[in-house]
Write a structure and sequence with these properties.
15 strands, Rossmann fold, about 30% helix, seven-stranded mixed beta sheet, single chain, alpha/beta
């Protein structure tokens, strides 16, 4: 038996609870991992609260991230005792995830834990930080360098935004951070933001094009915010879009793309190819100031995950939440 959060849906409704789960209930997979740490991402909050149909089959253990040690393996790349990390691949949605003390997985989904990080630090980064690194890599791939001008980060006090601000600042970019929580201004500046802007400037319908301001941007919000960011992006700038906290819609025009040559780079972390994942984690080991993780992170126990998930969805959580699963 092991402890885990189990989401169930039946005639009694949709519910998530911490339960004792029998090992025999674990899904198929060629690697079994003893999970030490997981995280709470926005998607996990949606899954636990039932605010969005994230979970595709029931019962389900949520948690799109995990870090732990291999217990048993028939996969050629892993053996008992190996420290591993997992992000995405539909885990926590269609396959049991990381918010439990044990997970059985496809070994192809795993990445070796980088030597630069402890399991807790890897989960402080988690899918949010790994996604932030993918966004930065996309900006670089499209020629957005520090000398080109300011880079904007929306939803900056959230998980992806916090890590993106920290990485960009360490790489020498001038970072403008957007947040709806003015009380987080000092926090964002401690991560390296040079300017903190109110999200109200971006969240309403705007013009198709406005004065060029941003060399690039990392957007976690979508909707009017993403449209307004594109409208103010400089000639041949790039916007990396990775989130929908403000909505799935994109009420924009083609003007930024055909008149200014702006690139809208879509960032998918869930099914991202293994080679790019490995590169992202290698970059995190060198380009993320590990000392900043303590500023970004709070650690909770598995028993607290359900209540914190509700606060996360309500926008009351700063930065990253690490779940100590094996406590």
């Amino acid at each position: 038996m092991f402890k885990g959060i189990l989401i169930e849906k039946d005639e009694q409704g949709y519910r998530a609870a911490l339960k004792d789960i029998d090992d025999a209930a674990l899904p198929e997979g060629n690697v079994t991992v003893r999970v030490s740490h997981s995280t709470l991402n926005y998607k996990d909050g949606l899954a636990i609260t039932g605010k969005s149909p994230v979970v595709r089959k029931f019962p389900m253990v949520p948690g799109i991230d995990l870090a732990g040690v291999v217990e048993t393996s028939t996969h050629p790349d892993y053996k008992a005792g190996d420290a591993v990390v997992l992000n995405g691949w539909g885990v926590g949605e269609t396959h049991w995830g990381g918010l439990a003390q044990r997970a059985r997985l496809n070994g192809d989904w795993l990445v070796p834990l980088p030597a630069a990080f402890t399991p807790a630090q890897a989960m402080a980064i988690g899918t949010a930080g790994y996604t932030a690194m993918l966004c930065v890599m996309a900006l670089e791939d499209h020629g957005v360098t520090p000398d080109k001008g300011e880079v904007l980060v929306t939803g900056a006090a959230g998980g992806v935004g916090s890590v993106a601000v920290s990485i960009l600042a360490k790489l020498g970019y001038q970072v403008a951070a957007v947040t709806g929580r003015p009380q987080e201004a000092d926090y964002l500046k401690s991560l390296g933001a040079s300017t903190v802007l109110d999200r109200a400037e971006f969240s309403s319908a705007g013009k198709p094009l406005v004065k060029e301001r941003w060399a690039g941007a990392v957007d976690t919000v979508g909707s009017h915010t993403l449209a307004n960011v594109c409208a103010a992006t400089k000639y041949r700038g790039t916007v990396a879009a990775c989130g929908l906290a403000g909505g799935m819609d994109f009420p924009s025009t083609v003007a930024p793309f055909i008149l200014r040559g702006v690139t809208l780079a879509g960032i998918d972390s869930v099914m991202c190819p293994r080679a790019i994942r490995l590169k992202a984690w290698q970059r995190l080991a060198t380009d993320l100031d590990v000392s900043k993780l303590a500023l970004i992170t709070q650690e909770i126990g598995l028993s607290d995950a359900i209540s914190i998930a509700h606060k996360l969805i309500e926008g009351q959580v700063r930065g990253r939440v690490v779940v100590k699963v094996d406590a």
